[in-house]
Write a structure and sequence with these properties.
The chain has about 180 residues and is mainly β. The chain contains two helices and 13 strands, in the order ββββαβββββββββα. The chain has a six-stranded antiparallel β-sheet, with no helix packed on it. It has a five-stranded antiparallel β-sheet with strand order 9-8-11-6-13, with no helix packed on it. A two-stranded antiparallel ribbon has the order 3-4. A hairpin with a 6-residue loop joins strand 1 and strand 2.
C-alpha cells in the first residue's frame, strides 16, 4: 500500500496494491495488519457504511462533536470529490480544507481522522461510497458545517450555475464561525 501524506496533518491518501490481468483485478480493500503497519493507526473500526447517490448529490460537511469518528472512505462505483476540513481549534491547519478525487477506477482510499469535517460530491452518474468508522453513529452528537461556507471556501467541482442536491439536514448546516468545533 502506498501512503501519501496530505497538507492536513493526519489525513492520508491510500493507494492499494492492485493485481490485474485480462480477467479483471484483485486487491485487499482492507487488512488490519497492513493498514496498521502502513499508517501507524491502531484504532479499531466498529461500523461499515454504504451510501449510494446520484450525480450532483453533496453530502456533508459532517462530523460528531462527541464520539468523534475516524473514517476510511472510498468510492467502489463511480467518482466523487471528497473534501475534509480541519475542525481542531488547536491545530495549525484549523479551518483549512483539502479535496481528493476518489473513484472505482483509481481505487484510492482516504483516512479522515477524528477532528475533521467530511463531505463528498458525486461527479459521475451515480456512486457507491463505502466507509469504515472508528466509533458508532451518534445522531445526538452529529454536526454539519455548511457545504458552501465562505470562510472555509471548499472549491466543489460543480458545473457553472448548478446547485448540488442536498438533504434537509445539510441545507441547515451552520456557518463555520458558529460551528461547535474540537479543542
Amino acid at each position: 500500500m502506498n501512503v501519501i501524506q496530505t497538507t492536513l496533518p493526519g489525513v492520508l491518501l491510500l493507494e492499494p496494491r492492485v493485481f490485474g490481468d485480462e480477467r479483471g483485478f484483485f486487491f485487499e480493500s482492507f487488512n488490519a495488519r497492513t493498514f496498521q503497519q502502513a499508517t501507524g493507526i491502531t484504532e479499531p473500526f466498529v461500523q461499515d457504511n454504504h451510501s449510494h447517490s446520484k450525480r450532483g448529490v453533496l453530502r456533508g460537511l459532517h462530523y460528531q462533536i462527541l464520539q468523534p469518528q475516524g473514517k476510511l472512505v472510498r468510492a467502489v462505483t463511480g467518482e466523487v470529490f471528497d473534501a475534509v476540513v480541519d475542525l481542531r481549534r488547536s491545530s495549525p491547519t484549523f479551518g483549512r480544507w483539502e479535496g481528493f478525487m476518489l473513484s472505482a477506477e483509481n481505487k484510492r482510499m482516504l483516512w479522515v481522522p477524528p477532528g475533521f469535517g467530511h463531505g463528498y460530491l458525486v461527479i459521475s452518474e451515480s456512486a457507491d461510497f463505502l466507509y469504515k468508522t472508528t466509533d458508532y453513529w451518534a445522531p445526538e452528537h452529529e454536526r454539519c458545517v455548511l457545504w458552501n461556507d465562505s470562510q472555509i471556501g471548499v472549491q466543489w467541482p460543480l458545473p457553472q450555475g448548478l446547485a448540488p442536491t442536498l438533504s434537509a439536514k445539510d441545507q441547515q448546516g451552520v456557518a463555520f464561525g458558529q460551528a461547535e468545533v474540537y479543542p
